[in-house]
């Protein structure tokens, strides 16, 4: 128990030190991870194993690829042309981003593949429009994580497999519809809070006033389309595909490799990877389990669904929704329902878990939120203080989205899906 408490205190300390001392939270986390490892007798292999190599490759590959497109102004001109097609109805842009992300994700690829492409584009578009990158980027995330619960998408498949092992059938569609409904509520509230209906673009030029794409930019756009098809259509790893396409563009001499490397926001990569390392040690010492146990001890027939959704959201902030949260919490549902009694249902509890776990993806500690932060920093060369501000705002929005799921669960909204 002592190690569990200490590990949680170290996690809180890392965040507090980062924000109060204006130090990169990733660097603080790396240092504290080593100290915590010594205290808890965690091996170096476990500490180093917490480095998110796959996430690092995903972020570095996509960021470098889009830095190439940013450097030769492909993204800027493409954004301007797209805005000009919408005309004065720029309030539709967040809605379109949400719908495109949702449909693509529900068609099979799932959230990670779709949001890897959509977030970077959405943030680039927001910068060109002088709109909120958090609004457009978060709409891309919510669309993607809402669609991923489709029975043929990643999260939906995981839910189907887990419930099948428990002897349950017919769960996939109710979960899909329930999570979609809750997700849509989150998106609508985000749109209202950020005043998406009053979104105005400073780019007011007509299509004919814009310059044509040059040869280099045309090749970059083709490579962007190839990226979308490879990742969304064929489910190839977005980071590796990005590196391959970047190599092709470099060999064709249409991009500036050295300039793009300078544009990569390395501080963001350090922040994200460092926090993940500390989280690995915290999890090893039982800190995350302690948080979950505290919440579970407060459950009754009225609070079971909201508490399990909050637990899923908290766990998802610090670990993979598909890889950790769903496989950990869903198998516990039958026992919880049996112990709690009342009118609590298994489907209701699973929707609460999946809903809380997926919308938490806006967190800057998750792939989606980190891509927003990285993309914005890449586009604007944001200062450290601005990065810290966006980091905090993304976390607050993620917390708000999770609380929306909790409130819907508390109101019995998930009981409608049986």
Q: Can you characterise this structure?
A:
The chain is mainly α and 418 residues long. The chain has one domain. Helices cover 74% and strands 0% of the residues. The chain is globular and about 65 Å long.
Helix and strand topology:
Elements: H1 2-20, H2 25-40, H3 44-49, H4 53-71, H5 74-86, H6 93-106, H7 111-129, H8 133-147, H9 154-165, H10 172-193, H11 215-233, H12 238-251, H13 257-263, H14 266-284, H15 287-296, H16 304-318, H17 321-329, H18 333-340, H19 346-359, H20 367-380, H21 384-410
Helix pairs in contact: 1-2, 1-14, 1-15, 2-14, 4-12, 4-13, 4-20, 5-7, 6-7, 6-8, 7-8, 7-20, 8-10, 8-20, 10-19, 10-21, 11-12, 15-16, 16-17, 16-19, 16-21, 17-19, 19-21, 20-21
In short:
This protein is mostly helical. It contains 21 helices and no strands. The longest helix is centred in the C-terminal third of the chain and has 27 residues, at 384-410.
List keywords for this structure.
mainly alpha, globular, 0% strand, single chain, 418 residues
Characterize the largest beta sheet: strand count, sense, and whether it forms a barrel. none
Radius of gyration: 21 Å
Question: What value does the average pLDDT take?
Answer: 85
Secondary-structure content class:
mainly alpha
Overall 3D form: globular
CA distance, first residue to last residue: 39 Å
Helix and strand element order = HHHHHHHHHHHHHHHHHHHHH
Strand content: under 5%
Runs in which pLDDT lies below 50 for 5 or more consecutive residues are: none
Relative helix content: over 70%
Number of distinct beta strands:
0
State the domain count.
1
Please count the helical segments.
21
